UniProtKB/TrEMBL annotation:
Pfam families: ABC_tran. GO terms for molecular function: ATP binding. Residues 4-252 form the ABC transporter domain. Keywords: ATP-binding, Nucleotide-binding, Transport. InterPro entries: AAA+_ATPase, ABC_transp_ATP-bind, ABC_transporter-like_ATP-bd, ABC_transporter-like_CS, P-loop_NTPase. Transmembrane segments: none annotated. Belongs to the ABC transporter superfamily. SMART domains: AAA (SM00382). The lineage of its organism: Bacteria, Bacillati, Actinomycetota, Actinomycetes, Micromonosporales. This is ATP-binding cassette domain-containing protein.
Length: 264
């Protein structure tokens, strides 16, 4: 079953520099991108710096609207709206923050952090039980619930970000470079956990990364973005072994510089 789709999605921003005649030229950052995420699948979105990955995520999360094309969830057209109006969508599609150091309010305990989406999204049911379940799902001891996130390690904080995203039992988890702030061994553990948790819960995963090896560790399918266009897509092993686009080849070339433990 297809959950999240982007069809012909295009996004333009004013270019940084003004034209000498005074007009501000426009840059096309995403150009007619098509994408579909099915229930339970793990899709990676890769591309070099500035390829448009984060912009595509903002459109998929209905934080921004495309200039052309459309994004749908379970067939319903998504448009950025006042927070309450998209509550139904936010329960189903949860975002895993990129930087676990910046993601949490310093005064919130671990329990507060995980319960926040349940309260804000008015998720019905037994919240203490869900908090406990979510912490266990990411292998965090529920005894940590009364601690402040500042007392956790970087890896534990990334697990906490994942526990928070899992608490509403979303159909899709969206993670933007979730390992970029972590040390190499912790990166591998977080990628494995993302894969295992999504398999165990049945959530789909959309993982954005620079790193094709990281995507290969966690995902089954990949979309390669280059200068705002999808230049290649397919099973991640196939793209890895027989890349057809220069962009995919460049990303593979870059792998030896990437974390130890994530190998070709
Ligand atoms: N709000 C904005 N206004 C103007 N330009 C923007 C805006 N957001 C993104 N851009 C530009 O769009 C292009 C794509 O940016 P985006 O952040 O989506 O790329 P990315 O693939 O996520 O890159 P990175 O891996 O470096 O984070 C960049 O050139 C960026 O400068």
């Amino acid at each position: 079953m297809t959950l999240l789709t982007a069809a012909g999605v295009t996004k333009r921003y004013p270019a940084a520099r003004r034209h000498p005649l005074g007009r501000r030229p426009v840059r096309t950052v995403l150009d007619a991108v098509d994408l579909a995420v099915s229930a339970g699948e793990r899709l990676g979105i890769v591309g070099g710096s500035g390829a448009g990955k984060s912009t595509l995520l903002r459109l998929l999360l209905a934080v921004e609207a495309p200039d052309a094309g459309e994004v749908r969830f379970r067939g319903r057209l998504l448009r950025p709206a006042a927070p309450g109006r998209l509550r139904w969508f936010r329960r189903e599609v949860q975002f895993v923050a990129q930087d676990p150091y910046a993601a949490f309010s310093p005064r919130m305990t671990v329990r507060d952090v995980v319960s926040e989406p349940l309260r804000c999204l008015r998720v019905p049911g037994d919240h203490p039980r869900r908090i406990d379940e979510s912490l266990r799902a990411v292998q965090l001891d529920p005894a940590l619930a009364s601690r402040l996130p500042s007392t956790l390690s970087g890896g534990q904080r990334q697990r906490l970000a994942l526990a928070r995203a899992l608490a509403p039992r979303p159909a899709v988890l969206v993670a933007d470079e979730p390992i970029s702030a972590l040390d190499a061994p912790v990166r591998v553990a977080v990628l494995d956990l993302l894969r295992e948790v999504t398999v165990a819960t049945g959530s789909a995963l959309v993982l954005v990364a620079h790193d094709l090896a990281a995507v290969r560790r966690a995902c089954t399918r990949v979309v390669v973005l280059d200068q705002g266009r999808v230049v290649e897509s397919g099973p991640v092993d196939q793209v890895f072994r027989t890349p057809r686009s220069a962009a995919a080849r460049n990303l593979i070339e870059a792998i030896p510089r990437l974390p130890s433990g994530v190998t070709r």
